Fold each of these.
Amino acid sequence: AQKITQTQPGMFVQEKEAVTLDCTYDTSDQSYGLFWYKQPSSGEMIFLIYQGSYDEQNATEGRYSLNFQKARKSANLVISASQLGDSAMYFCAMRGLGGGADGLTFGKGTHLIIQP
Amino acid sequence: DAGVIQSPRHEVTEMGQEVTLRCKPISGHNSLFWYRQTMMRGLELLIYFNNNVPIDDSGMPEDRFSAKMPNASFSTLKIQPSEPRDSAVYFCASSLMGGRMLYEQYFGPGTRLTVT
């Protein structure tokens, strides 16, 4: 079984500051992937970034980076230079590398509000 | 490129009626997932298909729910009879699947279902 924990229900951050959204996970899979999705108020789910469990380097994608600490089972999302448009729900998710394409297990999400 | 297409975007129905949600995955993707999002339970995987074959339907809440994927470009999720507790946003997602790669899932815009 897989479990994702996001301990920050909500965060307020000043525009242009960096933001770290916490995510810890638990799994018995040897190989797995960690994902972050953004859900703005319009409701769609937008893929942001992916980290494989065997990737030695932390993933980066523009202003997004994933601080992956395997021993601590954490996969925090870092947003640099936050913008007003970053205000949204953010979900951490994972899936195992089994025989097929397993579905994603999601955390409860963090509601991020960027203030001007 | 067209993303995942879902229809209808909104559905309001009365308790006891049959509801059919539709999904067209991204062309070339061979895995399809149905998720449900509610305030109480967050995002939950209902069922997923690999190469049009249902792999895991353990997330389907009860026998009132059924899903089919008759071909690589179309899937349906049916609720019969519907109940007020089925009110939620239903997402369809698709991804590639194969080998040791873990591919991200791309989500459709969702169908907001309200059962009165």
Amino acid sequence: QKEVEQDPGPLSVPEGAIVSLNCTYSNSAFQYFMWYRQYSRKGPELLMYTYSSGNKEDGRFTAQVDKSSKYISLFIRDSQPSDSATYLCAIYGSNFGNEKLTFGTGTRLTIIP
Amino acid sequence: NAGVMQNPRHLVRRRGQEARLRCSPMKGHSHVYWYRQLPEEGLKFMVYLQKENIIDESGMPKERFSAEFPKEGPSILRIQQVVRGDSAAYFCASSGTTDNQPQHFGDGTRLSIL
């Protein structure tokens, strides 16, 4: 079993729709959760960074963490064509400092005008 | 531009040659991480360095690969005697000095082996 599972898509939705992206993880030691957006031929760009269970909102983006189910989500409201990219979830666990990120494989999202 | 800088952006090598990839972290960051991304796969951790120290190299292949982050200058990922399977995008990330800071990525070096 992979440490982080993410549906690779591709996912296509019409402009203005709500997008839901999800990851599950297996190791309960993971405590820090991130979502990155990656455009073609570019590096991952940090979108959201959360620690605790619950929701965190930033503009059109909401990150949701459910540690009891080991399930994390990213919601995009009022989706725009510029949101078309690959979305990567990333997690790590330490209470003791910085360490490596474990990534999902990424979900390729296309917003159709 | 105060972001993570990687160069070169594209690197072509023939089998058996050496590849050297460079990474300058964001200003004020002293933690550097290298990841590799193969086609249709997610990013895989390779190595985590601080100035003059390798903290975690659990993702580095045992042979041909090495990394350093000297006191002065960029971090270097070195691949000796490259093979076709080394073709990938190599990304560098950096984070700040306090604990649990998020990692910020550069735009990567795309290595092609002929």
